[in-house]
Every structure is written in structure tokens, then in C-alpha cells.
Write a structure and sequence with these properties.
Blueprint lengths: L1 E7 L2 H4 L6 H16 L3 E6 L7 E6 L2 E6 L9 E8 L3 H9 L13 E5 L10 H21 L5
Antiparallel strand pairs: 1-5, 1-6, 2-5, 3-4
Protein name: YCII-related domain-containing protein
Organism: Acidihalobacter prosperus
Pfam family, one: YCII
Length: 149
């Protein structure tokens, strides 16, 4: 099962303040432990919302709205994508996540399971996604295989 650990934004992250060496070291240690356990799939911090945009749909109309966006608690500052054998294992690892704030203050981390193609009823459209998933997995395997270069 795949899970996304979602780090909510803070005022500091929205201001673009970069974490100090001590926080980066704690985050590196955590992610290294995930990698050693064979669970780490991806992880990254995000630029402040002022660097991003949203695509809004109203019926058949689509518009792009540039950031920044209000309500830091609703924004995402970063994520870690893991593969765990159970919800309990994912909870255990998410509890170990270091406090991601630059000042050790309050922050919230949300964890959500990812949907898998098996969660959907069979059909032509979902089969197209299964083919894409297989191609992406093969591409990732090739990228990790030193003999592929």
C-alpha cells in the first residue's frame, strides 16, 4: 500500500524561509531510514504558493489563478511518498516524522493512502491506467539499475 505523508505549510514555509542545517539533518536521517527499510518512493519540499498556481473549473470553463494563496493550514509545504505493508506500519513511520517547522513550533502532517488501479471497477479506461503504471514502474526500475546506462 502506498501512502503520502503531507506536510502542511507554515508561515515560515510560505515566506520561503529555508530550514536550517539541524532540521535538514533530521529530515535526511528519517528519509535514509525509510530508504533502508525499502519504503521510500519519493520525497520533496515545495516552493511557496506564491510560486504556484491553481487551475479552476466552473462548468466547461477553465482559468488559471496565480498564487500566493491564503490559509497556510490548507497549503502543502512538502511530501514523502512511502510504500508500507499496512496502515499500522504507515502510522508508525508517520509518527517518527521529524517536526518540519523551522522553529520547532506547531505543524500538521496529514497521511493519506493512495488509490490503486485495483480500487476501481474494471473497464477500458482503468486498463489504460494500468498500462501507464506498468510503463512508469519499468522506467523507474531502469533508472535505478546501474547496468541500464
Amino acid at each position: 500500500m502506498r501512502f503520502m505523508i503531507i506536510v502542511k505549510a507554515t508561515q515560515a514555509s510560505e515566506e520561503g524561509r529555508m530550514p536550517g542545517e539541524a532540521l535538514i539533518a533530521r529530515m535526511a536521517e528519517y528519509h535514509e531510514a525509510l530508504a533502508q527499510a525499502g519504503m521510500l518512493l519519493d520525497a520533496s519540499g515545495l516552493q511557496p504558493s506564491s510560486q504556484g498556481w491553481r487551475v479552476r473549473y466552473a462548468g466547461g470553463e477553465c482559468c488559471v489563478v496565480d498564487g500566493p494563496f491564503a490559509e497556510n493550514r490548507e497549503l502543502i509545504a512538502g511530501y514523502t511518498l512511502i510504500e508500507a505493508d499496512s496502515r499500522e506500519t504507515a502510522i508508525e513511520w508517520s509518527r517518527r516524522y521529524p517536526n518540519p517547522t523551522t522553529d520547532g513550533g506547531d505543524c500538521e502532517i496529514e497521511v493519506r493512502p493512495l488509490m490503486a488501479s485495483d480500487d476501481f471497477e474494471a473497464g477500458d479506461a482503468i486498463e489504460r491506467f494500468r498500462v501507464l503504471e506498468g510503463e512508469l514502474q519499468a522506467k523507474c526500475q531502469d533508472a535505478r539499475d546501474p547496468r541500464a546506462s
